[in-house]
């Protein structure tokens, strides 16, 4: 990483309030040139507190853009950080309407020339797409990183129509902890406490809304730009990572740009990265000069300078080489390819049938299994000659983190134990490299013993030593087999054709390795188990894996990126955690047949800021499962503290310092017919409890 101090333009920084039409004020920080000549503005619009939580990250990039002749603006959305109002949900109509108003306000400032860009990662990438779909006239271009165009099937709530237990729970708990944090008196004044209590009184756990909508209804269609790409007229640079759950959005946006569904020009980049900006150097690398790359984009669309962005391939993708399984890689081996369109003419479909016996004279055209066949399913249901899929409830404990952040325990470990809990189909050892680029699809003729169930597919790279590296995976809730917008129960013992896609990947298996397809009926805690513990049967001879094979010999234009550079770090001092514990720990109670997965998400930890703010953050997620589906249980505990000692910058009249803290607890349990949510917030000013509330809800299991 190169820290740049000799930027072309001298800059200044200002904290200000952006007024909205209803009188609400949003907290904003602006980095811009000292020279009064108007320049384009670039907006990052988030709920993650510009005055503390994102301040270290903001310091890496906003001054960089300002130093190259832009007004770079970071805004806290309504009800978050130091902004007025209440936050009622993620990507609500109010949030997006406010975003449009902010874009128009920026364009009207004396230091802005009327052109605006918008960027962000995750939440900020989401609302960049969503605000662009509302088409405010000043918004000319966006950069959306690790974001989604489909809020139902490619976000943190559902996957394949199944409840995404690991993040339906964990992200709702995280947002409860964020929404409960106080505004900072150093910015809002001595009325901070009244504003905080008012905010807390209007807080409602997001999980209630998310579990109230278990199919893809109008709630999820709102903000899902996949519904109508043609509403977007701003140029789109979409960036993602193969180790981020949102990478399929980049592929879909690139395809929408190619086929004209999206009116604006689109360019896509997918690297090896986790859920991080790709210049930060966090595992897995290699990192790229992301700020330089985005500066080319801004210069072209906001300043009219020809920086060659339209000559870039529509999709630049990283293809990793075979690696042994590990939970972290500093850098992955591989190469960049530039595809002339997406879908690419260099990618062709190869269908690999699922068979019982390997054809010796055609070793690479089928996947075969040694599993015994059956003709009767649980409950006595007769089935065609089939292989059973009846996975233990704890299958999935080695799935890794849904949102890898570059931590040491994020990625899936060796999959051999998971494979042993699944029905596996293997290729013969490969005689030449097999390069995959895109989304594979699984087709099965399936029988289910119950009315509900789900099937999970994993693709793995099996080395000569038997080690199994996860390549990609996919989920289908059987009730969603006819569409995510409805829940159709299965007739017990019935046989149907089903198919579903796996998430995209760029991966090259080495000669001597085998490709494995593993099928399971459970995947805890990623997927909340369906009631009934149904057993599945896969019909012999009727299934296949459809694989997007990339022509390794195809000619590609060279893809090169500069080395990462950023502006100097903020000078935050990070402290040690109060309690040393593993990032990820699995505990098995052998006698009871119960499993516990404990996760320390390590979002930020304890730190001290240059202005004297002492920030502490501790979170622990826990996931329990026993032998049956209704034993599933989740719990998340957060403790957050914000403190300034006496004498630190505070409003006049506050002489005793500032010491605010919150504690939250969030739990989900279930029975066959319901989810039960239990959330609690306790907020303190010093030792005084200023707010305490508990929410308990019973929510019918309509599809989840």
Automatic annotation (TrEMBL):
NCBIfam families membership: CocE_NonD
Keywords: Hydrolase
GO MF term set: hydrolase activity
Organism: Isoptericola hypogeus
InterPro entries: AB_hydrolase_fold, CocE/Ser_esterase, Galactose-bd-like_sf, Xaa-Pro-like_dom, Xaa-Pro_dipept_C, Xaa-Pro_dipeptidyl-ppase/CocE
Lineage: Bacteria, Bacillati, Actinomycetota, Actinomycetes, Micrococcales
Keyword Transferase: no
Name of the molecule in the record: CocE/NonD family hydrolase
Domain Xaa-Pro dipeptidyl-peptidase C-terminal, first and last residues per copy: 295-558
């Amino acid at each position: 990483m190169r820290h740049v101090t000799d930027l072309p333009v001298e800059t200044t920084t200002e904290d200000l309030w952006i007024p909205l039409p209803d009188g609400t004020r949003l907290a904003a920080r602006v980095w811009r040139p000292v020279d009064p000549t108007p320049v384009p503005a670039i907006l990052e619009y988030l709920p993650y507190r510009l005055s503390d939580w994102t301040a270290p990250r903001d310091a890496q990039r906003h001054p960089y853009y300002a130093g190259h002749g832009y007004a770079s603006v970071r805004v806290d959305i309504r009800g978050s950080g130091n902004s007025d109002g209440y936050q009622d949900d993620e990507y609500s109509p109010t949030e997006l309407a406010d975003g449009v108003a902010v874009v128009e306000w920026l364009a009207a400032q004396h230091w802005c020339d009327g052109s605006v860009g918008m960027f962000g990662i995750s939440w900020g990438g989401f609302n960049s797409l969503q605000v662009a779909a509302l088409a405010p006239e000043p918004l000319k271009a966006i950069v959306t990183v690790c974001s989604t165009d489909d809020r139902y099937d490619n976000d943190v709530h559902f996957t394949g129509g199944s409840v995404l237990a690991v993040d339906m729970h964990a992200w709702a708990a995280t947002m409860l902890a964020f929404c409960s944090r106080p505004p900072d008196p150093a910015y809002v004044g001595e009325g901070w406490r009244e504003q905080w209590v008012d905010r807390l009184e209007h807080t409602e756990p997001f999980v209630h809304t998310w579990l109230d909508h278990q199919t893809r209804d109008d709630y999820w269609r709102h903000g899902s730009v996949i519904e109508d790409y043609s509403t977007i007229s701003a140029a789109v640079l979409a960036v993602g990572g193969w180790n981020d759950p949102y990478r399929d959005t980049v592929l879909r946006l690139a395809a929408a740009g190619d086929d004209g569904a999206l009116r604006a020009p689109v360019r896509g980049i997918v690297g090896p990265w986790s859920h991080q900006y790709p210049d930060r150097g966090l595992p897995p690398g290699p990192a790229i000069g992301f700020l330089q790359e985005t500066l080319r984009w801004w210069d072209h669309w906001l300043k009219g300078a020809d920086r060659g962005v339209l000559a870039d391939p529509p999709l630049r993708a990283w293809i990793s080489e075979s690696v042994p399984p590990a939970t972290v890689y500093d850098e992955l081996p591989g190469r960049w390819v530039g595809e002339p369109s997406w879908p690419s003419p260099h990618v062709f479909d190869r269908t690999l049938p699922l068979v019982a016996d390997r054809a010796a004279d055609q070793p690479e055209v089928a996947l075969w299994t040694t599993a015994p066949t059956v003709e009767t399913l649980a409950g006595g249901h007769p089935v065609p000659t089939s292989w059973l899929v009846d996975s233990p409830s704890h299958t999935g404990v080695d799935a890794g983190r849904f949102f890898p952040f570059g931590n040491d325990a994020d990625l899936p470990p060796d999959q051999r134990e998971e494979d042993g809990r699944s029905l596996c189909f293997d290729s013969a050892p490969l005689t030449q490299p097999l390069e995959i680029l895109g989304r594979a699809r699984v087709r099965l003729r399936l029988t289910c013993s119950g009315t509900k169930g789900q099937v999970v597919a994993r693709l793995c790279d099996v080395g000569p030593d038997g080690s199994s590296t996860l390549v990609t995976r996919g989920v289908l809730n059987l009730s969603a087999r006819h569409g995510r917008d409805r829940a159709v129960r299965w007739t017990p013992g019935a046989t149907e054709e089903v198919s579903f896609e796996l998430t995209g990947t760029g991966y090259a298996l080495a000669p001597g390795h085998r490709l494995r397809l593993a099928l399971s009926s459970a995947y805890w805690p990623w997927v909340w188990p369906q009631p009934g513990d149904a057993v599945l049967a896969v019909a012999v001879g009727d299934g296949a894996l459809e694989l997007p094979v990339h022509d390794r010999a195809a000619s590609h234009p060279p893809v090169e990126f500069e080395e990462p550079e950023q502006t100097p770090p903020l000078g935050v001092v990070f402290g040690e955690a109060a309690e040393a514990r593993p990032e990820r720990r699995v505990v098995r109670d052998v006698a009871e047949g119960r499993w516990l997965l404990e996760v320390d998400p390590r979002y930020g930890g304890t730190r001290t800021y240059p202005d004297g703010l002492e920030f502490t953050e501790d979170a622990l997620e826990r996931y329990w499962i026993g032998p049956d589906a209704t034993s599933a249980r989740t719990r998340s505990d957060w403790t957050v503290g914000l403190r300034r000692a006496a004498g630190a910058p505070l409003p006049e009249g506050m002489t005793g310092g500032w010491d605010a803290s919150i504690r939250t607890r969030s739990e989900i349990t279930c029975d066959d017919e319901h989810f039960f949510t239990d959330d609690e917030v306790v907020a303190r000013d010093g030792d005084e409890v200023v707010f305490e509330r508990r929410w308990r809800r019973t929510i019918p299991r309509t599809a989840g």
